[in-house]
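Example S7 (structure tokens).
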């Protein structure tokens, strides 16, 4: 077994074998035909197709886990698999390569477990072997929601020390944070567990913390309220003053 295989979680090893299954689903549903859910958010044929495919794979991986997905959220018990089959539906509809598949596994209500994030368009896989730990700098670049940026929620929030860059899917941003492609992530809208599970678990293993309403997240909940900040603990006090 090589070093990368040794470092991989069972989830990442399993999905490495089956990732081509997800790629095949994406190729079949490339055209973003969408409709609106009851809450007014868009959903596409690809959302449903990926959800069905991932559920089948997860039941192969471990049938004893509860499958909790954006497209199937009736059951809630542990151990739990929290899945967003297509995080960043708006990005997909608009033809931006900033959406991702997010999977997180929790054995209990304690916020610990294994995460996996995958961008089928860029072929980026975020798992344990891509993690990079935090480094101190004179200035930092954070990634934020493109839609929140366009709504003006981050007006006057840039500082000389903390720059901001709009990016799509929250799961994709968290994968990028865990792999050292940005320094912190902020969202000013609520997020469901399926949005943030996979990426937050990867960030946790890379040494970053997840904060909701000014407190570190330590338990698994269905919804997390803003401000939501993912960063190294040494940056939190300053960031929490900018995003109170």
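Recovered sequence:
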């Amino acid at each position: 077994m090589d070093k990368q295989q040794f470092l991989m979680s069972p989830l990442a090893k399993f999905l490495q074998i089956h990732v081509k299954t997800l790629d095949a689903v994406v190729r079949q549903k490339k055209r973003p035909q969408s409709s609106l859910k009851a809450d007014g958010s868009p959903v596409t044929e690809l959302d449903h197709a990926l959800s069905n495919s991932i559920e089948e794979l997860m039941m192969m991986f471990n049938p004893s886990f509860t499958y909790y997905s954006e497209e199937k959220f009736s059951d809630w018990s542990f151990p739990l698999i929290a899945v967003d089959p297509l995080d960043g539906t708006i990005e997909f509809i608009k033809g931006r390569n900033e959406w991702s598949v997010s999977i997180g596994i929790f054995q209990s209500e304690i916020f610990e477990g294994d995460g996996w994030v995958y961008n089928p368009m860029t072929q980026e896989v975020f798992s344990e072997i891509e993690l990079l730990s935090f480094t101190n700098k004179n200035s930092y670049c954070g990634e934020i929601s493109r839609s929140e940026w366009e709504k003006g929620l981050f007006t006057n929030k840039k500082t000389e020390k903390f720059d901001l860059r709009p990016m799509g899917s929250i799961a994709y941003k968290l994968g990028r944070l865990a792999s050292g492609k940005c320094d912190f992530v902020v969202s000013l809208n609520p997020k469901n567990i399926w949005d943030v599970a996979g990426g937050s678990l990867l960030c946790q293993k890379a040494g970053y913390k997840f904060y909701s309403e000014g407190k570190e997240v330590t338990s698994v909940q269905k919804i997390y309220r803003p401000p939501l900040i993912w960063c190294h603990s040494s940056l939190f006090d300053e960031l929490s003053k900018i995003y109170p």
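Notes on this example. The chain has a mean pLDDT of 93.
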